[in-house]
Amino acid sequence: MYLGLDLGTSGVKAMLIDGNQKIIGSANGGLDVSRPHPGWSEQDPAHWIRATEEAVAGLKAAHPKELGAVRGIGLSGQMHGATLLDADDRVLRPCILWNDTRSYHEAAALDANTRFRALTGNIVFPGFTAPKLAWVAKHEPEIFVRVRWVLLPKDYLRLWLTGEHMSEMSDSAGTSWLDTGKRKWSSELLAATNLDEKQMPTLVEGTEVAGKLRGELASKWGIGGDVVVAGGAGDNAASACGMGTVSHGAAFVSLGTSGVLFAANGSYLPKPESAVHAFCHALPNTWHQMGVILSATDALNWHSHVTGKSAAELTTELGETLKAPTNVTFLPYLSGERTPHNDATIRGAFIGLGHESGRAVLTQAVLEGVSFAIRDNLEALRSAGTDIARVTAIGGGSRSRYWLASIATALGVPVDLPADGDFGAAFGAARLGLIAATGADPVAVCTPPQTAGTIDPVASLTDAYADAYKRYRAVYPAIKPLSIV
Fold it and tell me: How are beta strands 233-234 and 72-77 bridged, if at all?
């Protein structure tokens, strides 16, 4: 048996698979996000451990025998988080999360150093780890001087699981400290934030062994024998392993808290000025590109909170058949935006409201706004040399057929639906655990699921969507001068 642990923003998911990659069971532990100031987003790392314990306890209750046969564990996690530890591995402050934009001044200052884009292949985004450390050095110097280790969220879980300070390439590529082409830490970039390589975890590939489960936890969970912990992956690379998006040309769209358009690459293809992320993949000698929007299902959840209706109720209200866009346009920039704008201070907007603009019209605009934001990502990927012929949909938002039809029509490409099953980050992490434990061929393990169906672009609405996208593109420069943070 093999265990995948996915540390997300809203919870930890534990998934158990057997040697044939059949899913035996899964369980979850919940998490909350603290937002002490506008633009801030934090979590207490102790809560990650609690949520992991809850998730594993759920598996143990349902599948004690199978959990006891675990031989490999893979880790996946939310990227970019700054988990700061002292010399005794004590957490110095709450982790600053991926969607925290407080360090946009520091990010701009680092990005002005041309070596960052040259070595990392990426803009220094406010959500990345390096500018967060620069912010801590400036605003919390008493904490910065005590920093012995900087770990990404999933790698803090690894420390708890194994006692090892280790990470892997895909997650570390999102720190702004990795030489992405050479797949190693850059002492030059670390020095630019007054850090050195001794404060960074040891790097391995995502398929390699990165520690063994501590005996205390193995005993607690009823596991006998040595259990290896794989390097693992950042959440999107782990999802790609789960979806089999590991070969050049394969792509998926993820509708989670954030939205991602992900394409696997057989070589390193950076184009930072496009705001496309060029990262290492979890498999050796592979890379990937992705466009990221900060609010996908988060935008619908915000609308749900405001209206007092569940997300499912809101989307059901629209019916099954895709409608032509109305005159209402929504920009989903609730906490700034990454691709293509790299703008931490922009905020969302409804444009074109009228007396006739009821709840269903606003819901439709929210879904379309996210679809058009993903279209922006497609255009950015094309400018970086990657075209996409079709995508596979994953994430909670992919349960809405209406939304997927909107995305297919906005992108102008078919959207494939995977066969029944859970092929997300936890499954990808479990696959990496299997590879690390058995030495199996990564490409042979990370195969795509069967396609259950395809949603094609609605040809009769192509022109209407093209016009609505033009309106959408015109709103950002119009409201940019009006955004106040």
Answer: parallel
Q: In this structure, what token pair is assigned to residue 326?
A: 């109305």
How many C-beta atoms lie closer than 10 Å to residue 157's C-beta? 26
Q: For residue 82, what is the DSSP state? A: B
pLDDT at 485: 62
Helix (H/G/I), strand (E/B), else coil: 178: strand
Report pLDDT for 77. Answer: 97
Judging by DSSP bridges, how do beta strands 277-280 and 287-293 pair with one another?
A: antiparallel
Q: What is the sign, positive or negative, of the torsion defined by CA atoms of 306, 312, 318, 322?
A: positive
At 305, which amino acid appears?
H
Could you tell me the two tokens for 81? 């988080």
pLDDT of residue 409: 98
Q: DSSP 3-state helix, strand, coil percentages of the chain (rounded to 5)?
A: 40, 20, 40
Question: Regarding beta strands 415-418 and 391-394, do their DSSP bridges make them parallel or antiparallel, or are they unpaired?
Answer: parallel
Residue stretches of the chain with pLDDT short of 70: 485
Other CB atoms within 10 Å distance of the CB of residue 199: 18
From first CA to last CA, the distance across the chain in angstroms is 49
Q: Which residue has the tokens 């934090």?
A: 42
Residue 29, beta-bridge partner list: 12
From residue 211, alpha-carbon distances to 214, 220, 431 in Å are: 9, 18, 16
Cα separation of 96 and 184, whole Å? 23
State the Cα–Cα distance between residues 170 and 206, nearest whole angstrom. Answer: 8
Half-sphere exposure of 343 (CA within 13 A, CB side): 18
Distance between CA 438 and CA 353 in Å, rounded? 58
Q: Which residues are catalytic?
A: 235
What are residue 97's phi and psi, to 5 degrees?
Answer: -85, 175
Whose tokens are 């990010």? That residue is 107
Q: What are phi and psi of 46, to 5 degrees?
A: -60, -30
